[in-house]
Write a structure and sequence with these properties.
TIM Barrel, about 300 residues, 11 helices, alpha/beta, 8-stranded parallel beta sheet
C-alpha cells in the first residue's frame, strides 16, 4: 500500500451542521443488501477478494511471540492445498509484537498493523499515546489502528478529539492511520456520522467501526452510515478514505453482504485492500471452507484449517 498524501490543512468541521441520519432508510437499505445473492464464478471471486481484504488479528493479553509467528505463517500460507489464493492484507498485533511480526512476514508484501493509543479504552494521556504510536512505527508498523477518546467525544469536546487524531497522524509518519470510532459506545447513528466526519477531517486514512472488544461491534447499519460519510467527504474534498468494519464478521455470507454494500455505496474504486478491510480473526477460515466447497462440492471439517 503506497502512502497517501497527508492533507495540507486540517480544520475541524462544524459538526452541528452534519446531516442527520435517516435511520429507517438505513435499515431498509441494509435489508436489501442482505437479500442479494451471488452465484458460481462471481462468488469465488468475491471470496478471494474478501481474503485479500482481511487484517488477520490477534489482540489478547495472552499473545506470545510464538503465537504471533504462527499467525504470520497462516497469513503467508492460508491454505497450501488451494494454490492461487491471495494473501491477507495485514497482520494486526499489539505494539510489543510489531518487530516479531515484521520479521516473520519477511518480504511477503503483507503489512503489519498495530493497535495503539491505549487500545481498547483510549484512556491514557496524549503524550503516552503519541509515544506508543512512535514506538510501533519505529519497530516496523505499516499501519496504526488508534481509538478515539469516546468520553471526550460524547461530552461534545470535539476539538480535543480532533487535535488528538491529528497529533497521532503526525506521529505515524509514513504509516497509515486507521481511526477506530468504537461505534457501540457512541449511542446513535447520528453520532457515528459526526465521529466519521471528525476523524476524516483530522487526517484519518481509514475509519474503522470497532475494537472488537465490546458489543455491538461492526453492524451493517453502522457500516453503511460510515460508507455514506466517506462518499460525502470524497465529493466535498476529493480525498478518498478507506473503511474497516471490525468485530463480529465471522462468516463468508455476511462478508459478501458487506461487499455488496461497499459496491453499491462507493463503487468499484473502493474494491481493493488499499481502501477496504475486514478486521477479523475467524473470517478467513470460513472463507477458505466456502472456497473448498466451490472447488470440490463438499464442505471440509473446520479441523482441516489452522485456528491461528
Amino acid at each position: 500500500m503506497s502512502a497517501k498524501e497527508k492533507p495540507k490543512t486540517l480544520q475541524l468541521p462544524d459538526l452541528d451542521r452534519v446531516a442527520l441520519v435517516d435511520e429507517v432508510g438505513v435499515e431498509e437499505r441494509v435489508a436489501r443488501f442482505r437479500s442479494r445473492s451471488i452465484k458460481n464464478a462471481s462468488k469465488v471471486e468475491a471470496l478471494k477478494m474478501i481474503l485479500s481484504m482481511i487484517d488477520l488479528t490477534t489482540l489478547e493479553g495472552q499473545d506470545t511471540p510464538g503465537k504471533v509467528r504462527q499467525l504470520c505463517q497462516k497469513a503467508i500460507h492460508l491454505h497450501d492445498g488451494m494454490p492461487g489464493l491471495p494473501h491477507v492484507a495485514a497482520v494486526c498485533v499489539y505494539p510489543p509484537m510489531v518487530g516479531i511480526a515484521k520479521k516473520a512476514l519477511g518480504n511477503h508484501n503483507i503489512n503489519v498493523a498495530s493497535v495503539a493509543t491505549a487500545f481498547p479504552s483510549g484512556m491514557a494521556p496524549r503524550q503516552i499515546k503519541l509515544e506508543e504510536t512512535r514506538i510501533a512505527v519505529a519497530d516496523g508498523a505499516d499501519e496504526i489502528d488508534m481509538v478515539i477518546s469516546r468520553g471526550e467525544f460524547l461530552q461534545g469536546h470535539y476539538e480535543f478529539v480532533f487535535d488528538e487524531i491529528a497529533a497521532i497522524k503526525d506521529a505515524c509518519g509514513t504509516a497509515h492511520l486507521k481511526v477506530i470510532l468504537e461505534t457501540g459506545e457512541l449511542g446513535t447513528l447520528d453520532q457515528v456520522r459526526k465521529a466519521s466526519m471528525l476523524a476524516m477531517h483530522a487526517g484519518a486514512d481509514f475509519i474503522k467501526t470497532s475494537t472488537g472488544k465490546i458489543q455491538p461491534a461492526a453492524t451493517m447499519p453502522v457500516t453503511l452510515v460510515m460508507l455514506q460519510a466517506i462518499r460525502d467527504f470524497y465529493f466535498a474534498t476529493g480525498r478518498r478514505i478507506g473503511m474497516k468494519p471490525a468485530g463480529g464478521i465471522s462468516d463468508a455470507k455476511l462478508a459478501i453482504h458487506y461487499l455488496v454494500m461497499l459496491h453499491e455505496t462507493l463503487g468499484q474504486a473502493w474494491f481493493s485492500p488499499e481502501w477496504f478491510r475486514f478486521g477479523a480473526s475467524s473470517l478467513a477460515n470460513d472463507v477458505l471452507m466456502q472456497l473448498q466447497k466451490q472447488q470440490s462440492g463438499v464442505y471440509q471439517s473446520a479441523d482441516y484449517f489452522s485456528k491461528d
